[in-house]
Amino acid sequence: MSMNNRLPYRHFFAPGFSRGRMPANRPWRQKGLSLLEVLVAMGLGLILIAGATNLFIGSSQTFRTNESLSRMQEEARFALNRMQRDVRSAGFQGCAPAVENRVATAGNELQNLLFTELPLLGWEHAGTGPGQTSTIDDYEVGDADNWTSSAGLALPDELAGAVVNGTDVLVVAKVERSAASYTSEVEAGDPAAQPVNPGHNIGQGGVALVTDGNCTSGNLARNTNNSENALTFSSSGNTANGLSFPTNPASEIFHYQIRAYYVGLSDDQPALFSQRLDGADGTAAIELVRGVESMQVLYGEAGSNNAVVAEAYRPADEVTDWQNVVSARVALLMRSEAPASAELNTRVFNLLGTEINPSGGTPADPDGDRFMRLQAAQTLGLRNRLR
């Protein structure tokens, strides 16, 4: 065959092929995205990120809210239970039908009154009774003159300059049974150290309630011994040496305490404090619960000394006869440790009839803040009066 009769070279390619290009039925390789595709992908990604972020923020806010509420509820429950325990045992005198006070209380009207007559007493801050309003512009301690009591006593010196304005003060006189017992018989009026076993926690300067072995007599006397294995009642802290009756291993020994509850400041933040007022050594104020902005107290007063049902609840400056008080109502306003509310909190709280505006401004137009708050109240009965 001659060269002229041969087909052109290009005709030797299979159908669908041509010079300079791939077969038509072979898939194209991806080499990039169009601008529209990129924008759509970015938009979907941003929507997913925004949803995840919103879910995280919502979960975190819910966690902070629940944690703050749980903490406030737990601390309010602890504070009220602590006061309830003391109020319920107020006025207990052991098995003795009558108790003689031998503690030297000259010049201390509060101790003399609580040692001999009253198991419970209180002070009301001016302008915070039922039907009145109180605004917390700042946490400041006030002068003792800001508090009054119908018992006619001034605020105790130990509390002067320590109580936050707008809050009430509750004082309870109570005893705690000691496991200690006399190891031998002791004559009346003996000022020498008397061994006890096991040891006691009354401490030097503390007050003991001691009954005789027959439960016919009882004495309040200040311990002048610094040993936990002995008790001494000398005239250095009492009206006379020893006790007015002989004691023996069958005698009962109690630790007598006067304890005040009030709202004070801890690192410029409000907190509930407890402080002993019976003159014992080492009885500085103890912080119980932080975040208590206000405490309001009303006293349930019966119609007579023999009645056991409160006819009316009155503030401390309106109680007619403290001997007839059979219960106390205590209300606390708790605040979260840090701002935890997603919205501005402008709520005004009613604590036993007193309007409390905790965020400044006026009750009609509160400033508001982002702290969470909770109010708790409980009625505490004096068991030794409810019989």
Automatic annotation (TrEMBL):
Pfam families linked: N_methyl, PilW
Keyword Transmembrane helix: yes
Transmembrane segments: 35-57
InterPro entries named in the record: N_methyl_site, PilW
Protein's UniProt keywords contain DNA-binding: no
One Gene Ontology term from the biological process aspect of the record: type IV pilus assembly
Keywords attached to this entry: Membrane, Transmembrane, Transmembrane helix
Superkingdom to which the source organism belongs: Bacteria
Protein name: Prepilin-type N-terminal cleavage/methylation domain-containing protein
Source organism: Natronospirillum operosum
